[in-house]
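User: structure tokens for this one?
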Amino acid sequence: MADLDVTRADAVLIGGGIASATLAAMLTELEPDWHIVVLEKLDQLGLESSDGWNNAGTGHSALCELNYTPQDVDGSVSPHKAITINEQFQVSRQFWSHLVENDRIGDPSSFINSVPHMSFVHGMESVDYLRRRHEALTANPLFDRMEFTTEHAKLEEWAPLVTEGRPVTETIAATYSPDGTDVDFGALTNQLLDFSGRGGTTVATGSEVIDLRRMGTDWGVMVRSTTDGSIQVVRAPKVFVGAGGAALTLLQKSGIDEIRGFGGFPISGQWLRCTNPDVIARHDAKVYGKAAVGAPPMSVPHLDTRHVDGKRSLMFGPYAGWSPKFLKSGSYTDLFASVKPSNLTQMMAVAPPNLDLMVYLISQVAATRHQRFEALLEYMPSAVDADWEEVTAGQRVQVIAPDATKHGVLQFGTQLISAEDGSISGMLGASPGASTATSIMLNLLERMFPDRIEGWRPTISQMVPSWGTSLNDDPDAAHRSLEATAHSLGLEHP
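Assistant:
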């Protein structure tokens, strides 16, 4: 099998995306003598969920994503989830800064760039909500530079394409944070795995994992070459399944009890991508709005400045859709093959409470090009249809988790599934997994290597100084972290 002349490893990581890349880089730092094997089905790394055109790319830090600050029935807005997401993203920034400062990875501008994060709403009720959200967030040090306005002139200063052609009498509001970033997770994935490869990690593309079996104290990972069809088994005491939408079916193949009852619900989507360089040059922000009723979190509309493969671009969307595939490069039988006797009850139980999601997805699938362009005009009234092309977005598989009272519940987020003995773990779900991958992998290390974690603590504290603490509880530490990582990563922090 090409690039995989290995029969034994200290750890096997399945999937060549940002999750496996982050874990490989960590283990390379912590155990430089270990032999790690990373297996990727496709011919290139990071092409599926981590790719710049497939991933939301926001650098999710809850500065602009309104779904992280829902309004309660009494009208209150809790900052708790937003703070948690932001803390986790700061952990990622610290780890990336460590790698840059120690010449593990190269020019940070190849994967992360400063892009202001904005929230934009219209209508009195939404304006009132955004004002209360701003008040709740700016009381915390990770958000205290966020500005709020209801003035068209100020909004024009921040995002001229949003105001151009908009009636000055329209009731609007926006928040603006200069601490926002855009992250090309596909480029970052390749840098992380290049570093791990230089440290001795075997990174094998064109290597499809078709089965997982216990072999004594090891796991046997059966791998098929997508080039010549040859079969090989790699043995290792530790396995991580970071294969995006395919993680569910692979964990099912492993037979571990902990995956029983879990299912997945796939959601696809599309973007509109601007083709006019003059328009692209006039917008420098990520402008997020409110989701439609029933919309999944990854379908929150945004007018989005992106940096992909070193080139600046402008996108709008994503528009949700549906496909039974669990991966963009997957099979139309993926969903049906994932239904097992152990999760059938849970899969059936999520349908009645999520009828609004079903209705929303049907409407999105049936939407015409004209209807999609009409949605763009709400954020950019001066948009010209000829300046935009349709691009297929990535595939996401939402977690259906067992629940004691409801039998099954549809979750929006990421979740780690680990065997009781810590020998195998996997990551299910979608956003904000890429942005918070460092925190997720630190959690994974504690689960999979409980006998080593204390010995690793000094090194981890160098890689991630705030590990185990709360930046939000220490304003000085929060501000120092923001400034230090901005300096290391070449970000703007006036």
